[in-house]
Each structure stands twice: as C-alpha cells, then as structure tokens.
C-alpha cells in the first residue's frame, strides 16, 4: 500500500534523504530505527506533507496514487496519520472541539455526513477510556499543560478516532516512563488491523518490545542500510548502531 | 500553492465573500448635499422635532465648525470632504407605517437577505429587533412584551417626541455635545438610532437587538443611541452591522451613551461587519464611533463586548466612567484587520468612585497589510480609593506585512490603586498549522480555529446567538490570509 522508491528529500536546500526505498503492505507493522540525524523525522514529515520538505528525486506511491502531489489535508482524509513526536499546543481550542473539527473535516472530504456534537462526544468517550484520556482532558485546550504521557495518549486517541490506513508513529516513546509507554503501546496494538499499515519510527528498541514489528529497517545517512525481522532490533540494542552502520553513508 | 493560483482563488473568493454586498432599489429621499445650518434644519424638520432639539443640533453644528479633525490615531485616509456628502436619506414614506403588512415588501426582502427574521421565529428566539434601514426605523417588534415590563425600546426620533423629558435629561450627559469632532458632528446631524429605558428593578425580559445598515450611496450614517438603566435594573443590548459593497468611502460616526443608575447593569455587545474595502484597500467604511457608559449610581456595572471585523478604518474606544462607588467597568474586544484595514481601538476606564473595578481584555488580530492598534487609558482619580484594574492585551500576527501596536496609558493619582497590565504578541506558528492540516483540517479552517481559540475569552462574553455568528465572522474575515 506504500511504495517509496529512491526517495531524495531536501530541507532548506540540504539533502537529508538520499535514495530511500521502502515497501509496506496492508496490515503490516514496520519499524524504522536509526541514530539521531539519520532522517527519521524527515521521512515522517515528507509522508505527511509538511511544507518545506522538498522531494528532489524518487516517488511515493500510496494505495495506487501519487502521494507527493496530494495536499496535506487530503492525505489525512485518505488515511495518512502521523502521531507526532512533539504534539502542538493550540491555546483556547478545547481538545474536544479540535477532535470534532478534524473528524468532520475528514468526513466531509470523503463525502460522508458530518457528525453532530453529541455523536462526536459519544464516539470520543467510547475510544478514550482504554487510553485513560479523561473528560477533564477533553475540556482542556489542546495539549496545553498536558504531560508528555497525556500528549502521546491523545495522539493515539486521534489515531483511534480517525481510523487511518497508514499510521506513522514518530518517536512515540520519547519522554515516556515505562507505565506510560505500556499504555500507549497497548493502545497502538489494539489498532492493529488487516487493513491498517503502521510505520513505527524510533531510536530505541524499547518500544518494539511492546509493539512488535513485522519488519525492521535501519535508516542511516538518509538510506535504509539494513533490514530484517524483529530480531534485528535486538541486535541493534545489543551491539549499537555503529556495528551495523559501518560504511559511510 | 503557487502565487498565481493563490491570487486567483482569493479574487474568486472575494466575489462571494461579502455576502451582504447588495443594494436595495428603493426610491430615496435625501437632504441637499453638503453640511450647513440648512442641512441641520432639514433633518430636524424631517423628524418633526421640537424646538429644543433643533437648538441642540444647531449648537452642536456651530461648535463643530470651530473644531478640527483629530489626527492622533494610527490611521491614514484621504481627507474627508464633508461638503461632498449627503447627511440624510430615508426611504420615501409619506405616512407612518402601522404594521408589518404595510411596510414596503422590498425592505422586508432586504431584511430577509440580511437574515433578520422580522417574524415569530425571532420571538421564539426571544429577541426584539428594532431594524434601522438607513436612517429611518420602519418596524419595531415585540413592543407589547416590553411594554408589559415597562421597558421603552424605540427609535430615538420617536423618543424625542414621546418622552422629551427623559431624552432632555440624559442626552449629551455622557458624551457632551463638544466631546470630540465626530461626536459633535453626530450631535448636529444624527438621523436616527435607538432609545432604551429600563425602569427601576426591572430585568429586561429579552435581549434587545438592533441591526444597522447603510444603503444609500454616499450618505453618512449618524446613529445616536441612548440607553438608561434605572436603579437595580438589567439590560443586554446587541448591535450588529452589515453594509453593501461600495467603491467610495462612507463615513460613519455614531454616538452611544449608556447611563447606569444605582445597582443597574448594562451589557452592550457589538458585532461590527461594515464593508472593509477590497483586498487592495479600495472602498470601505470609515467608522468613527464614540461609545461611552456612565456608571452613575453606586454598585452599577457596564460591560462592553465588541467584535470588530469590518470597516476600512475603525476609530473606536468604548469607555466607562466609574463615577459611583463600587462600580464595575468591563471591556472585552476582538479587533480583526486584514488586507489594508486599519483599526485603532481600545477603551478608557475612568475611576472616580471608591472601590471601583475595571477589566480590559483585548485581542487584536492583524493579517495582510493591516495595522491594528490597541489604545487604552486607565485613569485613577484622587478620590478613587482602592481602585482596581486588570488589563490584558494580546496581539496575533498572520503573515509578515501587518502590524500590531499597543499604546496603553496609565494614570494613577491614588496610592491605594492597583493596576495590572499584561501584553503579548504572537504569530500563528507553522507547526500549529501543520498539525491541523495533518488532521485533515484545511488551511482556512485551521486559521479560523486557531484565531477563535485566541479570542475565546472574549467570545465567551457574547450572548449565545451572537457568539455563533461572531465565530463564523472571525473565520470569514481571515480567509486566504495564510498561504
């Protein structure tokens, strides 16, 4: 469902991704691991369509279409979801209002009818319990004053609400203690489904103990330098990146 | 998005953007062009005014002749030729309309386009509408219910005839005839407006609402509003404005006076959406307004809430004179300036009595090439023991070509006063926009959402039905401002 071929991406004129190739099938969970500065976040942003991330070469095919030419919001409506490393605060906009606005914008784009406030609330409540997202959090301004754990749980709640086809989790484990990590991982695992692909981006193997991937890719110097099953993550943990990333990128 | 596509889209959007930009084809009756004693007499005669009112107007006109236009505000506009405008226009209406059935159907059509339902629906909503079509009020609804409560809600021209003693007692006591250039001009030529009196101890049974509308080309609109809340009474008044699209600039100089007697409370809410001019700064309303409330009696309260999205130029400082002891003044403001709009707005809180309190929350949003200034005065007089003020001024910038300015004046002549001032300036961050887009929210909707969040504290002050309208307006007035 996602085919990335020889992808080159520049940010501010500097090439970050240098010929990345990656293929993900429906229902698969892939992990991207890599040291700092290897281009992990760049990959997540270019897939989501952030401004300033320029594709200079290569292609991204998503469910048969050319992802690169799609507007950011259209990608979202077509099922691309990015759980962000640093969820953004929007003062004065309650979390529930934000969820309703986003949900209805996606529904509109897909030609579905909009949900009224009560239906949204019901849906959100139903999904929120497992992630321990409280009513009180829903009333607070989006991410304002949220702890690291609360922010990440809210990201997964959104993933649960929007039911994406391709979920990209960018460093979802960063800033989480072990209990918070388990809670988030359980939330993610509950969303594993035959029609949903996931791309889990992480620096550490720790997260992959809880979200067990089908494939692991090692990203270094803007390219995939190693691939394997879940055991590759353990090898990385034991031996470090230096062991695998031997050749200069 | 490419620049060309962007421009094309914006131009296309403009066509439908100003949905209130239509002109009603009704025969107009006008005063001769220009401003002279003759014009003033003409207006007074048209309104069938008593001698004292004409004298009052003429007195104002003589004062005005000796005054010069103020230039201290941060607004720039070509010199206004006061002799090249009409000061009175009314739909030709030979006899007084008695019921809605007798009102020109075209007027009613206009109301329908504006979304003013002069029908039972409105009664269900609990709002009485005194619709001002250009200069003459043609229909006033729900009088019966208000009569029952003893509330007077009528065109000020009617009040001058029917309640002369009350009008004489209060008119010009909050905003004196010689207060400022524009207020004095208004005093000479005001065409109509609204009068409200709420008797002692009465809580007005419904929100009072007036829609103003400029229709005749090249006609200044000079509204005059006087609201008196007698001891222990309460009234909430809503004012909303729309105006048709025009090429030449139109002058608007309204005066609003509020009087709150002992223990009374007046809540005055405005949504101002006059034509702002096009995206190149052509056309638009010049809005020079004097609004002031007098907390005359102890323990009275006056609260101003304004959402200012329209007009090419806004010059407006709704103020409170906290004369009585233990009185409270509030000012909640959202001012949005886009394209070439210029807004210079704020408030004055004049603390005269003991234990007086005031609160100022101002949210300024600038986009395009607009300039937005908050200008405010907090003045604590020697006898105002224990006066308190809290001021918060937040500015939000969208894009790199607009400006936000904050000019607070603070004067304290009593050592027991406590005055707090907080100010922030921020921009809509790229990461906020990206976050919204990634969740499927379009750029325009994202801007609207973020700005509405920024303005939330003020929007919450508006009565429910206005709040919804205002939220939409916030989004519409900033469409295409990012991209």
Let me know the CATH homologous superfamily of chain A: P-loop containing nucleotide triphosphate hydrolases
User: Under the CATH scheme, which class of chain A?
Assistant: Alpha Beta
Q: How many strands in all of chain B?
A: 24
Strand order of the largest sheet of chain A: 6-9-10-3-11-12
Distance between the termini of chain A: 28 Å
Any idea of the CATH topology of chain A? Rossmann fold
**Which stretches of chain B are poorly predicted, pLDDT < 50 over at least 5 residues?**
1-17, 93-98, 117-127, 134-139, 212-219
Class derived from helix and strand content of chain B: alpha/beta
What does this entry look like structurally?
The complex is a heterodimer of chains A (249) and B (483). By secondary structure, chain A is an alpha/beta fold. Chain A has a single domain, classed as Rossmann fold, CATH 3.40.50. In chain A, 37% of the residues lie in helices and 29% in strands. In chain A, helix 6 (148-162) runs parallel beside helix 7 (178-190). The longest helix of chain A is centred in the middle third of the chain and has 15 residues, at 95-109. By secondary structure, chain B is an alpha/beta fold. Chain B has one domain (3-477). Chain B has helices spanning 3-17, 37-46, 51-65, 105-114, 120-125, 143-149, 156-162, 164-170, 181-189, 430-438, 443-454, 456-459, 464-477, and strands at residues 28-30, 89-91, 127-133, 136-140, 152-155, 192-198, 207-213, 223-229, 234-242, 250-252, 255-260, 265-273, 285-295, 301-308, 313-316, 319-322, 328-337, 342-345, 348-351, 357-367, 371-380, 388-398, 403-412, 418-427. In chain B, the strands form three sheets. In chain B, strands 4-3-7-9-12-14-17-20-22-24 form a ten-stranded mixed sheet. Residues 1-17, 93-98, 117-127, 134-139 and 212-219 of chain B have low confidence and may be disordered.
């Amino acid at each position: 469902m996602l085919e990335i071929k020889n992808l080159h991406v520049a940010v501010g004129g500097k090439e970050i991704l240098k010929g990345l190739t990656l293929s993900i099938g429906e229902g698969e969970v892939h992990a991207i691991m890599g040291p700092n500065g290897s281009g992990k976040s760049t990959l997540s942003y270019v897939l989501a369509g952030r401004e300033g991330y320029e594709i200079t070469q290569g292609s991204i095919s998503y469910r048969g279409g050319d992802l690169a030419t799609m507007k950011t919001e259209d990608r979202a409506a077509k099922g691309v979801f990015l759980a962000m490393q640093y969820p953004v605060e929007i003062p004065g906009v309650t979390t529930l209002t934000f969820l309703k606005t986003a949900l209805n914008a996606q529904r509109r784009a897909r030609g579905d009818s909009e949900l009224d406030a009560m239906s949204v609330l019901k849906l959100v409540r139903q999904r929120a319990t497992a992630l321990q997202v409280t009513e009180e959090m829903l009333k607070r301004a989006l991410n304002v004053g949220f702890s690291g754990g609360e922010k990440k749980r809210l990201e997964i709640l959104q993933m649960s609400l929007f039911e994406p086809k391709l979920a990209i989790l960018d460093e979802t484990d960063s800033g989480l203690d072990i209990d918070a990590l388990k809670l988030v991982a359980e939330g993610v695992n509950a969303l594993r489904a035959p029609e949903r692909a996931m791309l889990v981006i992480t620096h550490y193997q720790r997260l992959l103990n809880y979200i067990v991937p089908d494939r692991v890719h090692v990203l270094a110097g803007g390219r995939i330098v190693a691939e394997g099953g879940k055991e590759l993550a353990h090898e990385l943990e034991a031996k470090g990146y230096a062991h695998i990333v031997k050749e200069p990128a | 998005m490419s620049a060309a596509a962007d421009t094309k889209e914006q131009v296309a959007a403009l066509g439908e953007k100003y949905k209130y930009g239509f002109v009603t084809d009704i025969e107009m009756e006008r005063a001769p062009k220009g401003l002279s004693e003759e014009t003033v007499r003409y207006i007074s005669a048209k309104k069938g005014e008593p001698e004292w009112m004409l004298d009052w107007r003429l007195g104002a006109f003589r004062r005005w002749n000796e005054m010069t236009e103020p230039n201290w505000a941060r607004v720039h506009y070509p010199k206004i030729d006061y002799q090249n405008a009409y000061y009175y226009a009314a739909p030709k209406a030979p006899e007084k309309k008695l019921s809605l059935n007798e009102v020109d159907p075209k007027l009613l059509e206009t109301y329908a386009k504006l979304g003013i339902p002069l029908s039972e629906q409105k009664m269900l909503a609990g709002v009485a509408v005194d619709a001002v079509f250009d200069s003459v009020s043609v229909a006033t609804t729900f009088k019966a219910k208000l009569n029952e409560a003893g509330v007077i809600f009528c065109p000020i021209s009617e009040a001058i005839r029917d309640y002369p003693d009350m009008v004489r007692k209060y008119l010009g006591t909050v905003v004196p005839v010689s207060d400022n250039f524009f207020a004095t001009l208004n005093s000479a030529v005001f065409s109509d407006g609204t009068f409200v009196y709420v008797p002692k101890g009465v809580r007005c049974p419904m929100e009072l609402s007036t829609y103003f509308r400029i229709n005749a080309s090249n006609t200044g609109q000079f509204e005059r509003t006087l609201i008196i809340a007698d001891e222990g009474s309460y009234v909430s008044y809503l004012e909303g404005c729309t105006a048709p699209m025009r090429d030449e600039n139109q002058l608007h100089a309204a005066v609003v006076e509020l009087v709150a007697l002992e223990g009374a409370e007046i809540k005055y809410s405005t949504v101002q959406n006059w034509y702002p001019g096009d995206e190149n700064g052509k056309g638009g309303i010049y809005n020079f307004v004097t609004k002031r409330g007098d907390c005359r009696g102890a323990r009275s309260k006056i609260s101003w809430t304004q959402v200012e999205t329209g007009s090419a130029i806004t010059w407006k400082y709704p103020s409170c004179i906290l004369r009585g002891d233990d009185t409270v003044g509030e000012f909640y403001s959202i001012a949005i300036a886009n394209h070439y709009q210029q807004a210079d707005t704020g408030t004055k809180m004049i603390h005269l009595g003991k234990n007086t309190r005031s609160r100022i929350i101002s949210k300024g949003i600038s986009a395009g090439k607009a300039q937005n200034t908050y200008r405010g005065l907090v003045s604590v007089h020697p006898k105002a023991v224990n006066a308190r003020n809290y001021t918060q001024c937040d500015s939000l910038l969208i894009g790199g070509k607009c400006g936000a300015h904050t000019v607070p004046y603070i004067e304290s002549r009593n050592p027991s006063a406590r005055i707090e001032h907080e100010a922030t300036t921020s921009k809509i961050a790229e990461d906020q926009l990206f976050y919204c887009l990634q969740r499927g929210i379009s750029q325009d909707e994202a801007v609207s959402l973020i700005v509405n969040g920024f303005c939330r504290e003020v929007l919450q002050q508006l009565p429910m039905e206005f709040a919804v309208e205002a939220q939409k307006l916030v989004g519409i007035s900033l469409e295409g401002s990012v991209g």
